[in-house]
């Protein structure tokens, strides 16, 4: 999906979360990891990780199996995609 042509809002972002077990979200220089099997972040916390200032899903976004990667961090991509 091309994020420049199709924007995803809150509803779609939360639907993605229901299909995964873990999230890696890059915010600035920091990578935030959430294990949804153990952690139970509330709606506001999830949306803070997933949405940018325009309230659209942040890009890039990648789903690998039951893992969702939001934002770009080279080390995270290398770690999760080399398998």
* Major β-sheet strand ordering: 2-1-4-3
Sheet/helix structural class = alpha+beta
Average pLDDT value? Answer: 89
Order of helices and strands: HEEHEEH
What is the overall silhouette?
A: globular
Q: Which percent range describes the beta-strand content?
A: 15-25%
Largest sheet: 4 strands, mixed
For the record, give the distance between the C-alpha atoms at the N and C termini, rounded to a whole number: 23 Å
Proportion of helical residues: 25-40%
Task: Outline the fold blueprint.
Elements: H1 10-17, E1 22-27, E2 30-35, H2 43-50, E3 61-64, E4 67-70, H3 74-81
Parallel strand pairs: 1-4
Antiparallel strand pairs: 1-2, 3-4
Helix pairs in contact: 1-2
Your description of this structure?
It is a single chain. The protein is of the alpha+beta class and 83 residues long. The chain has one domain (10-81). The protein contains 3 helices and 4 strands, in the order αββαββα. A 4-stranded mixed beta sheet has the order 2-1-4-3, with helices on one face. A hairpin with a 2-residue loop joins strand 1 (22-27) and strand 2 (30-35). The chain is globular, with a radius of gyration of 12 Å.
């Amino acid at each position: 999906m091309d994020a420049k042509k199709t924007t995803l809002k809150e509803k779609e972002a939360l639907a993605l979360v229901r299909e995964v077990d873990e999230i890696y979200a890059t915010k600035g220089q920091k990578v935030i990891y959430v294990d949804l099997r153990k952690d139970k972040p509330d709606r506001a916390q999830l949306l803070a990780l997933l949405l940018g200032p325009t309230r659209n899903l942040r890009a890039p976004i990648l789903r690998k199996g039951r893992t969702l990667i939001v934002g770009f961090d080279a080390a995270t991509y290398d770690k999760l995609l080399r398998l």
